[in-house]
């Protein structure tokens, strides 16, 4: 079934290939969460996915068994639209509108994972109940940032959340880390990267003065992907062509204590 509306659309195969390549290229450059969050494909037709907490169990009643700490959640669809003018389809085609739409969609995905979607009662990494917190010092002075991150890692390990770590920060905090640490001759960001074991991830989808640390193992959290990022054809209006860059994906937090917020 052509649910993307491509069959019969007045768009050449070469143009579709250029659009697809452009969307993929922009997404690879723009998406931040996918740099650390494990991805799990649940199939393009999936409308719901299970979210199971680490402490999932069973309750045995008189004549039936009930599974606890498991939710069946609808996988949200996010999108961004763009138009191509019919006069632009002759000769060299400017795909800037397509690039902008892919950039917007990428930011929407990161925002959804960071903050959830309150209207759909979906929690994000920064809003889920049960995460751990560290009082953040002034990351522009001394070894405060290094000490805070070290404390966060210790808290994760104490909770049994060891493995691959990721530190995600807003641009303003990231810039505070781009300074030589006194007595070391090394950038503060480089010291922290070595401590965490991976590059620091900077995201414009985060509000100012925001930073968090996660254990990015699949037993702690993942991103369930139904329809991965793709482009659909919507309509032709006044000879101009309407497209939609879209995806279906759901953040699944299985261990909220695998998240440390620096507040």
Strands, helices and their partners?
Blueprint: H1 13-30, E1 39-41, E2 48-60, E3 65-74, E4 77-84, H2 96-115, E5 132-134, H3 144-158, E6 165-169, H4 171-176, E7 180-181, E8 186-187, H5 188-196, E9 201-202, E10 211-215, E11 221-225, E12 230-237, E13 240-253, E14 259-262
Parallel strand pairs: 1-11, 5-14, 6-9
Antiparallel strand pairs: 2-3, 4-13, 6-10, 7-8, 10-14, 11-13, 12-13
According to CATH, what is the class of the largest domain? Answer: Alpha Beta
Evaluate the radius of gyration.
Answer: 22 Å
Number of helices: 5
Principal-axis shape equals flat
Specify the biggest β-sheet. Answer: 5 strands, mixed
Q: Helicity level, as a percent range?
A: 25-40%
Low-confidence stretches: none
Report the count of strand segments: 14
Question: Termini, distance in Å?
Answer: 48 Å
Give the overall average pLDDT: 92
Strand content: 25-35%
Give the helix/strand class. alpha+beta
